[in-house]
């Protein structure tokens, strides 16, 4: 094998391998489905043109049939009036109209068959598109699963239990040190002077609330007033009795 042939073979092999790596089955399938969907409007347009031709021929056939009936009536009227010349001219038009009707009828039959065929092809294409879309979705799902399995396999191949175990132990030790330091700081903060002051203020607030509660109960007569309070109350009532 010559040098040039070997170079060409190597280049083709390298190019093919690079293309295989670049080709993403999921993207290619999605693009194929998009291409098939984009052909539907063009296909519908072609079917519409065939159906339009069918309807035009049907209208022409209907007009020719009406024309033949009218010419037949005109021929009979001309003969009754003794105008054979006019009747002869109408007969010529009638024969031409009959020929046109036969030709149009044949064209209409062909157009009707073409319309049915076009509609059938369009429906088959849409059905095939749905089938291909379903197959593509299954293949895409399989491709994603294969990709995940490949990534998992690569991870398992690179997994080294010794290195990872030491990493976990190191991180666990750091976290435990941080937790211990945080607990020590919390303990110091709760035993500090600020914490004690806070406790004293809270106790004072509780005493004030209890005193207020006792005052309400005395006013409501639920408990007896202290002795000093009774003496002050009796001394204040004495002048009123003298009056």
How would you characterize this protein structure?
- It is a single chain.
- The chain is an all-alpha fold.
- The protein has two domains: 3-159, Helix Hairpins; 194-229.
- 92% of the residues lie in helices and 0% in strands.
- The chain is built from six helices and no strands.
- It is elongated and about 150 Å long.
- The termini are far apart.
- 3% of the residues are buried.
Oligomer: single chain
Number of helices: 6
Low-pLDDT segments, ≥5 res: 236-243
Using only C-alpha atoms, the radius of gyration works out to 53 Å
* Distance linking N and C termini: 145 Å
Largest sheet: none
Overall number of domains: 2
According to CATH, what is the class of the largest domain? Mainly Alpha
**Secondary structure: number of strands:** 0
Order of helix and strand elements from N to C terminus: HHHHHH
Strand content: under 5%
Mean pLDDT: 77
Please bin the fraction of helical residues. over 70%
Sheet/helix structural class: mainly alpha
Provide the CATH topology of the largest domain. Helix Hairpins
CATH architecture field of the largest domain? Orthogonal Bundle
Q: Which word captures the global form?
A: elongated
Structure at a glance:
With about 240 residues, this protein is mainly alpha-helical.
Write the layout of secondary structure elements.
Layout: H1 3-22, H2 25-80, H3 84-158, H4 161-190, H5 193-219, H6 227-242
Helix pairs in contact: 2-3
Give a quick set of tags describing it.
243 residues; mainly alpha; Helix Hairpins; 6 helices; 0% strand
């Amino acid at each position: 094998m010559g040098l040039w042939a070997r170079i060409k073979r190597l280049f083709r092999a390298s190019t093919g391998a690079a293309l295989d790596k670049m080709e993403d089955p999921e993207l290619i399938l999605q693009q194929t489905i998009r291409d098939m969907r984009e052909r539907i409007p063009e296909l519908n347009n072609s079917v519409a043109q065939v159906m339009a031709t069918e309807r035009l021929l049907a209208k022409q056939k209907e007009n020719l049939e009406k024309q033949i009936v009218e010419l037949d009536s005109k021929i009979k009227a001309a003969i009754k009036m003794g105008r054979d010349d006019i009747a002869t001219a109408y007969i010529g038009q009638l024969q031409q109209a009959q020929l046109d009707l036969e030709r149009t009828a044949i064209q209409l039959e062909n157009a009707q068959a073409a319309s049915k065929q076009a509609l059938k092809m369009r429906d088959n294409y849409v059905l095939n598109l749905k089938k291909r879309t379903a197959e593509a979705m299954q293949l895409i799902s399989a491709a994603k699963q294969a990709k995940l399995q490949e990534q998992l396999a690569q991870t398992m191949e690179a997994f080294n239990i010794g290195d990872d175990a030491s990493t976990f132990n190191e991180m666990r030790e750091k976290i435990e040190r941080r937790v211990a330091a945080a607990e020590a700081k919390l303990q110091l903060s709760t035993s500090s002077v600020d914490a004690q002051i806070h406790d004293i203020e809270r106790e004072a607030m509780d005493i004030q609330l209890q005193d207020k509660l006792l005052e309400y109960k005395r006013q409501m007569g639920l408990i007896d007033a202290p002795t000093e309070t009774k003496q002050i109350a009796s001394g204040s009532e004495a002048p009123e009795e003298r009056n």
